Amino acid sequence: MTLTRRLLGSFFEVATLILHPVFGDPCHGSNRSQGQGDRKERCVVTSDELIYWACGSSVLEEEDERGVAHIVEHLAFSATKKYTNHDIVKFLESVGAEFGACQNAVTSSDDTVYELFVPVDKPELLSQAISVLAEFSSEVRVSTDDLEKERGAVMEEYRGNRNANGRMQDAHWVLMMEGSKYADRLPIGLEKVIRTVPSEVVKQFYRKWYHLHNMAVIAVGDFSDTQSVVELIRTHFGPKSSAHDPLPIPHFPVPSHEEPRFSCFVESEAAGSAVMISYKMSVDELKTVKDYKDLLTESMFLYALNQRLFKISRRKDPPYFSCSAAADVLVRPVKAYMITSSCKEKCTIEALESMLIEVARIRLHGFSEREISVVRALLMSEVESAYLERDQMQSSSLRDEYLQHFLRNEPVVGIEYEAQLQKTILPQISASEISKYSEKLQTSCSCVIKTMEPWATATVDDLKAVVSKINSLEEEGSISPWDDEHIPEEIVSIKPNPGNIVQELEFSNIEVTELILSNGMRVCYKCTDFFDDQVLFTGFSYGGLSELPENEYFSCSMGSTIAGEIGVFGYKPSVLMDMLAGKRAEVGTKVGAYMRTFSGDCSPSDLETALQVCFHGILIFPFLNILFS
């Protein structure tokens, strides 16, 4: 299932081949083909230039193998039984595919993923790409010479990960996964292993875990004949031997903990100060309509929480610059709710206190019906847009949907059915149901709190004191309800007298129509078949920063940015956000060297709303009146 948010994931299940056409229903489309391979591969074929294959992971490594999964990934592009001397790299470069770190393969705790982007208009290239994937499955060459050549490249990635951000991320990961094997199996591995591991150990790991039972293939593209792609996969993978008794993929649990964990990272290279609160929990199944309703409820909770966090960041003297909440799968058995903020130096304690108070406020008082109606309208608008553009979706969306199918056994139902589900379920989810999700965000629920600062100002004792303070306030009921802002009913309360079209010109060679209005404004428009639910527009007037005196240039060049923060269209961003709930209408302004512009991206049904926002800003709000008049 697609839904709005995407979960990070691992991919390591039964040997499976999947293909699906970009145009058509992923579940019921006539362009889909299915099949069963001779080596227990399942094929689901629909139609882009993406072939995706996965296997192996760092959590499967023994102590003397830490980093070997990543080394195997590198060796795969170096040489196989059929392709030698980096022939695979040369092939990718010959078809215009990018090659480099994280471009064609990524090793994580639960999987290694290989991606080949190839044109599909030449069958021989598609066949060769599938041949490469088949070689990866069982024919990677692991000789002493090959390994020595790749050690340098792997060490370069290891050193690149030793920067400030990498060090903090690794330390935080160990804290999050403490008590599980995941804590000791960072994908990059150990320097000692990278430098000294013998080829026999690498070969043993490859033979132990690279089996068809542990792999899957997804091909998404504008294939003219999906069944022929199934046959190509059978041709290249069919001769591969299936293991008689392959090892099952072990389950590595991550223990929960009632006492929160704390860390204060001080890194002189850090770009700024930040706070992160994580609440870990088991990954939920998604098999029934009730499961889907729970997922929708979770999404609505995160949307509503993010609305509040955004509004707080727009207050006078806010506790942080920005703050947001999200849910992510960390490793196969565990996901987490994460609330992250960036703040001023020496203000991490203030930011943490504000974040904890807001979650506690929801537990005590819940969300209002108006807040939930805004979120409901947003989700409904998003799924309607996805439905209208179902024949124009990105191939990666289909790829990711199948990925979740293999990773978590999520059903693949197609956007038509999912849109119908959301339209039916969303009105049934109450504010009280959504507010209950805040119970999962308690410091007794496997909570991990970290701060990051360039200079030490907060200590672990300070963090503990904040947690104790907020818990006490919540127990006493001393946290007041949320005080929301007044939201106007209409963007333009007094409608202007309409003008009229005085002249219409046709430019048939470029399929453009020009209208000249009675106020002198010229409007040009062109209809396209690019996206069914999108209108793009731009308005401009000559004259810009190049006409200013030198002493005014720098302050004026920041004008649009500052105005955007305080409310460039006559309303504060937090107010305008609620006014536009359920509408897909985004507008912005820019002052360049030679012209001033406003631009927008909206749904055809919301074009009037987008133009009303522009009108209100340009003709009513003084700042834009100066810029554009």
From TrEMBL:
Record-given protein name: Zinc protease PQQL-like
Keywords, alphabetical: Hydrolase, Metalloprotease, Protease, Signal, Zinc
Top-level lineage group: Eukaryota
UniProt domain Peptidase M16 C-terminal: residue ranges: 199-377
GO molecular function, one term: metallopeptidase activity
GO BP annotation list: proteolysis
Peptidase M16 N-terminal domain ranges (all copies): 58-159
Pfam families tied to this protein: Peptidase_M16, Peptidase_M16_C
